[in-house]
Amino acid sequence: MTNLKALSLLKTSSYINGQWQQGKADLAVINPANDKTITHVVNAGIAETEQAVLAAQQALPAWRAKSANERGKLMRRWFDLMMENQDELATILTLEQGKPLAEAKGEIAYGAAFIEWFAEEGKRIYGDVIPAPAADKRILVLKQPVGVVAAITPWNFPNAMISRKAAAALGAGCTFVVRPATQTPLSALAMAELAERAGIPAGVFNVVVGDDAKGMGKVLTQHPAVAKFTFTGSTEVGKTLIAQCATTVKKVSMELGGNAPFIVFDDADIDAAVTGAIASKYRNAGQTCVCTNRIFVQDGVYDAFCAKFIAAVKQLKIADGMHDSSQIGPLITRSALDDVHKLVTDSVQQGAKIALGGDVDKAGHNFYQATVMTDVTNDMPIAKNEIFGPVSPIIRFSDEAEVLKQANDTDVGLAAYFYTRDIGRIFRVAEALEYGMIGINEGLISNAAAPFGGVKQSGSGREGSHYGLDDYLEIKYLCLGGIGANS
Ligand code: SIN
Fold first, then answer.
1. Neighbour-count burial of 375, counting CB atoms closer than 10 A to its CB (0-12 exposed, 13-18 middle, 19+ buried)
2. 388 CA to middle of ligand 1, Å?
3. Which of 98, 201, 319, 345 is within CB 3.0–4.6 Å of 32 for a Cys-Cys bond?
4. Catalytic site residues?
5. Is the pTM of this model over 0.90?
6. Which of 184, 417, 452, 458 to mutate to test the pocket of ligand 1 (most atoms within 8 A of CB)?
7. Which protein residue's CA is at the shortest distance from atom 8 of ligand 1?
8. Confidence of residue 308 (pLDDT cuts 50, 70, 90)
9. Which of 99, 110, 446, 458 for a ligand 1 pocket mutation test, highest count of atoms within 8 Å of Cβ?
């Protein structure tokens, strides 16, 4: 049993303008491993969200006026504090989200890395001098912060999905308001506590926690003081939010759903492909947008891959994330599990076979067995939908052109993976896949230095890397005339 009293970062109300909201804490935060209440938080709503936006607006001039160096120092301190408190942040994260503690620690390091990265990258926001068409003119380009940034973030990465937006925003000189998912507010509030300890000024980083998703979402997408809105979540919700942003023509960046193919060609290193598929598929119990969703295996290695893959999946330990042995934790809610199970059973009815798992696990109500399905075709529900659970559908294919057609046969395009040792094929396939990120002989592709984002209905904009700043900057063109000749 975790001693909650010992958790100094466990905060239970919204953080607005450097203040912790007062009020009765009556919104329960549930541990998905056992459905027990961890604690209650104060339920903020529309009024608090408006206050947070106004606080961010007020804090903007002073934050924007700081040098990138000054901002970078404060952010660096925030990064250091996150890493110093990695164990406690990970405990809070596992309690509210469910992922195994080792994975939660990994997420804290991953999330903190964005703060470190953008603390530095903010110093490299270069402008431009463009040769002018007339001798007495000069063309200068400045890059300036867009202003107040509002964000809505998901429950699957309660820390890293906030930091990779907030760090880019703060590094660019913007101020920030986030509404974290109702299921996982505690990680966001712990980040706010550390931001305060780091000396990030009041109003620069605000967290509003509440269950009025629609009302709070409308403020964040429609308030005139918000210049830019960013969201990570489902494509369906993303479309609604984009439409809401249109009313005030906000700059938007969206990281939406995926349906990642994982292709194993005949010439692949099968053991490496098995390791990559396990890492990509079963990370966070399959609840990531970049998780492998469909495994395509070529005829010549189909039997060998399936045998090795099933044997490896069988070894995965399903347990409460707080147990040392846990490799797969619970799904976020029972209704999420029911959705996954329905995709499995509907596909079985259409001819798919269960090679492993396929049901609720004995570990508890919200735990799903590590599942492998064979005889799957690309038109079955398990292949057409984003699974968000620990289920691997395996589809057999014969040639490169055929698998590319199937892999691209989806409206979304976030991540794709393939395994081959043929250098020509590496370029052909990487160029032909309609996805924003491609893992080649690699199943884990996420890191702060790389541009994360998708094409098609997987969204717009990139997070992380030096490209990650672009979405938080405006380009301003200065035309300097009357220079003339020196007589
Ligand atoms: C996501 O699932 O949206 C993010 C996954 C990652 O950052 O690797």
1. middle
2. 12
3. 98
4. 255, 289
5. yes
6. 452
7. 446
8. very high
9. 446
Q: What pLDDT score was predicted for residue 355? A: 98
Cα–Cα nearest to 314, from 217, 390, 425, 409 = 390
Taking the centre of ligand 1 as the mean of its atom positions, its distance from the CA of residue 183, in whole angstroms, is 17
Query: Is the pLDDT assigned to residue 151 strictly greater than 70?
Result: yes
| pLDDT for residue 487 is more than 70 | no
Instruction: List the residue whose alpha carbon is closest to atom 3 of ligand 1.
Output: 289
pLDDT band of residue 306 (cuts 50, 70, 90) is: very high
What strand order describes the sheet that includes 371-374?
353-356, 371-374, 391-397, 292-298, 260-264, 415-419, 437-440
**Ligand 1, atom 7, residue with closest C-alpha:** 446
Instruction: Tell me the CA distances in angstroms from 147 to 43, 64, 291, 437, one per residue in order.
Output: 27, 8, 33, 29
Take residue 26 and report the two structure tokens written for it: 């009556």
The torsion region of residue 357 among left (phi > 0), alpha (psi -120 to 50) and beta comes to left
Q: Which residue is closest in CA terms to ligand 1's atom 5?
A: 288
Q: How far is 280 from 287, CA to CA, in rounded Å?
A: 10
pLDDT digits (tens, 9 = 90+) for 244-280: 999 999 999 999 999 999 999 999 999 999 999 999 9
Ligand 1 pocket at CB < 6 A: 156-157, 160, 232, 255, 288-290, 446
